[in-house]
Request: fold
Amino acid sequence: MMQKKISRYIILLVCSWACVCPANAQEESGESKSSGREETLVQGTSREKSPFIRGASVSADIFGIAGKIFGNDYQSFEVAGEINLKNRFFPVVEIGYGTTDTTDDDKDIHYKVAAPYFRIGMNYNFFYKKDTPNSIFAGIRLGFSSFDYDISAPDLTDPVWGGTVPFRYDGVKSNAMWAELVVGLRTQVVKNFHMGWSFRYKRRLSLKETPNSDAWYIPGFGINDSALFGATYNLIYYLPW
Reply:
């Protein structure tokens, strides 16, 4: 009789334990899920509190300065300022000075210009989710330059009346506007100091026509054409906020 009571007691304990364990497991699972939700909320809050302006940078293009070393007949001196918005969008302003003083050996045409230019636009960082100072980006630019140029060539011969007509025009006023598509990358060399390059597709939007000649070189754009490619190589100082 006693053995039967003990057996019944043990069976009751086992059944009670079997019922209680799943309930505890559910409670623990609920607590872990709640903790996970709290951590997610905390992380989301920390992301929301991250500053809208993350930093700013200034840069200088050394490829344009060394243009004649690479066989170009022109040079440019360019600096840029950029603001980091959420590490994703980078509004940028580029200001430069383009110059050339060259003669076409085949036609003996001399062309000279020196004038400022500027571009405004924005870059988009594809690495904005990564905790890294390096970036791969794409962007757009709108450029403009107002300039005066000098152009001269050998005297022209009048085929009807004979004689010659001088071909020399100084201070010819012109202006141009163009758009650019930009892709590039930049990497940190040491703290706050970066280097980077970009490739650019340029499309001329407008050019003021002049009655006796056309501009051969447009500061900031390049040799006068409807479209062309360009490149920059920048030294960059980044200041995080």
Notes: Residues 1-47 have pLDDT under 50 and may be disordered. Residues 2-48 form the longest helix (47 residues). The chain has two helices and ten strands.
